[in-house]
Amino acid sequence: MKGDIIKKDENKGKKVSGGKVKKPGKRGRKPSKIDQKAKLERSRQSARECRARKKMRYQHLEDAVMKKEKEICKLRDELETYKKWCKSLDDGVIPVELKTSLKLTTQASVKTNTASHSSGSKGIKLFIPKTRLTV
């Protein structure tokens, strides 16, 4: 009986499951205050680095958006120019800008063709749409 009494006193505050006695709390050594401070500092440093990466990522995205917006504005202006040219052509007037653009394209085509004939290759063909003129 003395053995039973000792076991009861030993098991106070301990859980028994499947015949095994479990101690409350975690296994292993308990971290000291120095370890906790170091862990907290590492966590803070990691958070600073994360915020810096996030800031760089957003800056990169903002730069890309600005670049795309500039391209969109440039393309819209170009589209408006082409619309004006088409309206002028429908009215029977050839815009001066269109003439100079066609001359430059033709000159570039001639230079490309002469250079390609000397080298023996076929060269690049440029597509120049035929415009209808109503006078």
From TrEMBL:
Signal peptide: none annotated. Transmembrane segments: none annotated. InterPro entries: bZIP, bZIP_sf, CREBL2/REPTOR-BP. Pfam families: bZIP_1 (PF00170). Keywords: Activator, DNA-binding, Nucleus, Transcription, Transcription regulation. Residues 39-90 form the BZIP domain. Residues 1-54 are annotated as: Disordered. Residues 1-13, 32-50 have a biased composition (Basic and acidic residues). Residues 14-31 have a biased composition (Basic residues). It is found in: Nucleus. It comes from the Eukaryota. Its main location: nucleus. PANTHER family: CAMP-RESPONSIVE ELEMENT-BINDING PROTEIN-LIKE 2 (PTHR21051). This is cAMP-responsive element-binding protein-like 2-like. It comes from Saccoglossus kowalevskii. The gene is LOC100374126.
